[in-house]
Design a protein that fits this description.
248 residues; globular; alpha/beta
Length: 248
């Protein structure tokens, strides 16, 4: 069905740059049934009336919704939407006979504050599994780690409130090493700390085994190419698959 280990310091540089793309993106239904819901989210500060209501979308076949909220890495910047890693997760689930529908809410260049502004709209529709990939742009800009942590905690709290039964996954991100060891260590440690405190499941560093590998990245040396995206999907699938195979 259509959808669309490197040293930590070098990996952090590549990841931070990867998430600093242009402010463009969309919520795409990777099963090809997006309809009116594929609204451009070029400015997450726009009023809710700019976007179609997600609660108007139903799943008549009983599939569970897996929602990915993330940056350019999730959006698949530079790739065909069907080659972005959430689309590859859909294919893996289809091959495993799992009745799920992946929705890709990646937005290039977004910070954790932007993700927080968007999450209420995204939670209007059904969400059974929520995967959060955010924070790298905060690190790129040297934003306060405690502020980033509060944004992530608030996103998770909103998911818990709106969708109490949803499984929540948090993707480990990294900050660029030029900001100093103290900052990068605090940034790295923040993700497992949030996961422990919130009960979310921590997924590994998204670009593990991909960052810094020319053969796995686009010509810019930053964003994964098709093969790199397949490696990223493998990284995510290992942590996500057990939740997807659970009975609803």
């Amino acid at each position: 069905m259509k959808v669309r280990a490197l040293g930590a310091s070098l990996a952090a540089v590549v990841l931070a740059l990867a998430c600093g793309g242009g402010q463009s993106g969309s919520v795409s239904d990777t099963t090809g049934t997006a309809g009116s819901r594929a609204a451009a989210l070029t400015d997450s500060s726009q009023p809710d009336s700019m976007f179609p209501a997600r609660d108007s979308i139903t799943l008549p076949d009983g599939r569970r919704v897996v929602l990915f909220l993330g940056t350019s890495l999730t959006a698949g910047l530079g790739l065909d939407p069907d080659d972005a890693y959430p689309a590859l997760i859909q294919r893996k689930a289809d091959s495993a006979g799992l009745r799920i529908r992946v929705e890709n809410a990646g937005l290039s260049g977004e910070t954790s504050a932007g993700a927080l502004r968007r999450v209420d709209w995204l939670l209007r529709g059904p969400v059974d599994v929520f995967v959060l990939e955010t924070g790298a742009n905060d690190g790129l800009r040297g934003l306060d780690v405690d502020s980033t942590r509060r944004n992530i905690e608030r996103i998770i709290a909103k998911v818990r409130s709106a969708r109490p039964t949803a499984r929540i996954f948090l993707v480990q991100m990294e900050a660029p090493p030029n900001l100093g060891t103290k900052y990068t260590d605090q940034f790295r440690a923040m993700f497992p700390a949030v996961a422990r405190a919130s009960g979310a499941t921590l997924l590994p560093f998204l670009l593990d085994g991909v960052a810094g590998e020319p053969s796995l990245n686009q010509p810019d040396g930053i964003h994964p190419n098709e093969e790199g995206a397949r490696r990223v999907a493998d990284n995510v699938w290992r942590g996500l698959a057990p939740a997807l195979t659970e009975a609803p």
